[in-house]
Amino acid sequence: MSRITEIAISHHRLALDPPFKASWDGRPRTAFDATIVRVRDDEGREGIGSGDLMKGFEGHEALFIGEDPRCLERHYEVLSHIDFHYGRCWPLDLALWDLAGKVMGEPVWRLLGGRADRVRLYASSGVLRAPEAMADQAERYLEEGFAAMKLRFSASAGGRAGWREDVRALEAIRARVGDRMALMVDCNQGWRMPWDTSRPWTFKEALTVARELERLDVEWMEEPLHREDRAGMRRLADATAIKIAGGEMTRSAAAFRDLIAERALDVIQPDVALTGGITGCRRIALMAREAGVIFTPHSWTNGIGVLANAHLTAGLGEAPFLEYPYDAPEWSLERRDFPLARPLTHSQGWLVLSEAPGLGIVLDEDRLRTTRIG
């Protein structure tokens, strides 16, 4: 029987030149950090995860050493207690699923239900480009086979000059691609970076924007209000034909239970690297299915996070699309996936998962050595 013998955590930093000017962050990003979690067993196998910083985990290793890595529900409960007392340590859940798959000789997507070995992607942009440049980017996505894309509106000062300018970028895209591509919009109002004190939209502002998005046939409107304003999101969902999406920073399955029960969102977007791991997000996906709410994960971490979300989505067969962060050149696949031996490859808007046991992660150990900061 497999037993956990070691948990190792390392931190890495990739310099970004030119910087990445993320729409949700007024400060250009000159580096991209990744935390790698490794779980080893007594037969030499290694499970790998990545995502949050694992703050608060140090000193809790003994709660897992000597345990069977396949006892995933037990490990989830322990991690949920650590989450309550300290920080989000869900990358360990990803590593445990990877190791469990290797112990059992099966890919994680099959262990989760095996509905499919592939997921359909939407290209998720991150940079606030001028309208014509956004339309050019949309055409490039179409040429690569993507059937949908998401563009960002400005989070606060430092972006475009208000939501009307954002709508102009959306209009340019729709004029260029017509009905050949589904469009989603992330309004960037659900949360702020620690230094950003600007207020989110009011309900009336969000409703005004929703009317513009209806005119442009947008699939969903993401994070249009503060993340805790469940009543406002329910009102907005009732007032517009546009689907209301959110939840990328919602921290627990219980919070998603309330969002689903109150019909505050039409589309929920947990991320296995940030909320509950694969174990917790599986519960959320099944709750959403029973309630008729769309499940489609957020995945703005790195290629390991994309893979883990893809395995969950394929295994359950729940999502119409999976988010695929990809906005070259500032957010290229090479930057996003720098911990991996090779960037993930997409084909005609799909990500096909392998038959390799676990999550199918192959790390670039040389790159990790040269980028290690802790």
TrEMBL record:
<dbReference type="InterPro" id="IPR046945">
    <property type="entry name" value="RHMD-like"/>
</dbReference>
<dbReference type="InterPro" id="IPR036849">
    <property type="entry name" value="Enolase-like_C_sf"/>
</dbReference>
<feature type="domain" description="Mandelate racemase/muconate lactonizing enzyme C-terminal">
    <location>
        <begin position="131"/>
        <end position="243"/>
    </location>
</feature>
<keyword id="KW-0460">Magnesium</keyword>
<dbReference type="InterPro" id="IPR013342">
    <property type="entry name" value="Mandelate_racemase_C"/>
</dbReference>
<dbReference type="GO" id="GO:0016853">
    <property type="term" value="F:isomerase activity"/>
</dbReference>
<keyword id="KW-0413">Isomerase</keyword>
<dbReference type="InterPro" id="IPR029017">
    <property type="entry name" value="Enolase-like_N"/>
</dbReference>
<dbReference type="InterPro" id="IPR029065">
    <property type="entry name" value="Enolase_C-like"/>
</dbReference>
<dbReference type="Pfam" id="PF13378">
    <property type="entry name" value="MR_MLE_C"/>
</dbReference>
<keyword id="KW-0479">Metal-binding</keyword>
<protein>
    <submittedName>
        <fullName>Isomerase</fullName>
    </submittedName>
</protein>
